[in-house]
Amino acid sequence: xxxxxxxxxxxxxxxxxxxxxxxxxxxxxxxxxxxxxxxxxxxxxxxxxxxxxxxxxxxxxxxxxxxxxxxxxxxxxxxxxxxxxxxxxxxxxxxxxxxxxxxxxx
Length: 106
Known about the structure:
Distance between the termini: 33 Å
CATH superfamily: Winged helix-like DNA-binding domain superfamily/Winged helix DNA-binding domain
Oligomer: single chain
Number of strands: 2
CATH architecture: Orthogonal Bundle
Largest sheet: 2 strands, antiparallel
CATH topology: Arc Repressor Mutant, subunit A
């Protein structure tokens, strides 16, 4: 991934509702979720949800597939892993990141 793609992805995740939606999609896995299920889980208006899903999709963090009359949203794990890889390689100089427990002991 290049820096511009990472910035776009992190910018999309910087909003609390988008982070919550993305987290729900990551936890759900390959099955994905319909907007109706996400709406019920997150509890935001459908139009607001639509906007946030579009932002996540534009950042490449989610994919959308039409299944009959429904839309299925899924986390784009390859993009998520790309962001994590970029951060590890460029922000931590490739070193293994310490766990929270080891940082707390310092």
